């Protein structure tokens, strides 16, 4: 599925191909993220054609997805780690970085820039980078593509120093204005985009019992504040010789009923008392400090929820429309854990040897303490509801099985009774017997449906109950109607038997 090629001075050498058993890397894993250089790590043995021709920082490498026709990784190979096992097997392990890492190879130049747009400032930094690496043997240049990040005035005031280009972009733009970097290629040109957000919202589900192999949901309460102490400007000491490094500050005690703190009562009921402070040096009035503190507590009191997911990429076999890509949002559905929302993939791991082991990392969510408690209670109720529904379904299926068994016994008895009328014509018996045989076949089909239903609602597949309960209810109604029809046919047969008896008693057919 994945082909790995190294490039030295324009000469390509394939070191891994899915169709040739003797052309393999021993291990191969791609790690993708946002605003970081993607990495590719692999291990090769001495019999691999690339074992002795890789030049650190000079040899380029790419990983091509032969299924999608797209490159999963393009970059350069860094330094190797050589090893020999206790059995005498030699190997080399390499780590590679994507083309975004080229921005670490250049340094900016000092400059002062004001009344300049974000795009223009970004173009200046990329131009500095291109000039710095212009004479390199490897093409490390970029062309500025899309820039959608801006600020309220669409102009900025910045200084440039001599730090690396990547660190400068992170410090002067990303850390202050947000945004995300993306490297792409069109018609052989390497573009770098600076976007508000990469990716899009997709409809391909990550769903329990479909493509979700495993999921870990971890709540991190480190960001939770149930009691906040707002602090304003520093208050100078009345003593001229005071050297206390911890100066007094303005508090809200005078405008908050003698209390210097405010509380989130809902969060406190869930997590107890967790006190933290926050200072605003420019606030000099207690009432303003109280209002600012209340707003801060409302906006920043969050429970960090982390997800780690292993999911099958069914697009590779044509069962899903979209593959899972970093930056995109996907519906994640797990009713047992109370998860049903669009979540963003912020990191992805690709195992080129075992693609089924690909992992996704979902971006952190920050629900409030009350939302967190609500979601936990809701998930618990849903699990209880699922168990109750499963129990009711099993009861209905048990009753249906008993009815089917009783009906089958009645048909067998009727067939035996017909066989006792030796004087009845062969044509009548054949006609009635065929009818009974047809109904017995129907019963067997119904018994198979019941078996399938029991399998569907087994405890081991409780995670599928929420999706299958409606289907099971429909099947039960269908089976019940079928039994009713069979009973009507039995009654008709019994009437026909009585008619035959009467004709026999009257001495004729």
TrEMBL record:
<dbReference type="InterPro" id="IPR007119">
    <property type="entry name" value="Phage_tail_spike_N"/>
</dbReference>
<protein>
    <submittedName>
        <fullName>Lysin</fullName>
    </submittedName>
</protein>
<dbReference type="InterPro" id="IPR010572">
    <property type="entry name" value="Tail_dom"/>
</dbReference>
<feature type="domain" description="Tail spike">
    <location>
        <begin position="137"/>
        <end position="373"/>
    </location>
</feature>
<dbReference type="Pfam" id="PF06605">
    <property type="entry name" value="Prophage_tail"/>
</dbReference>
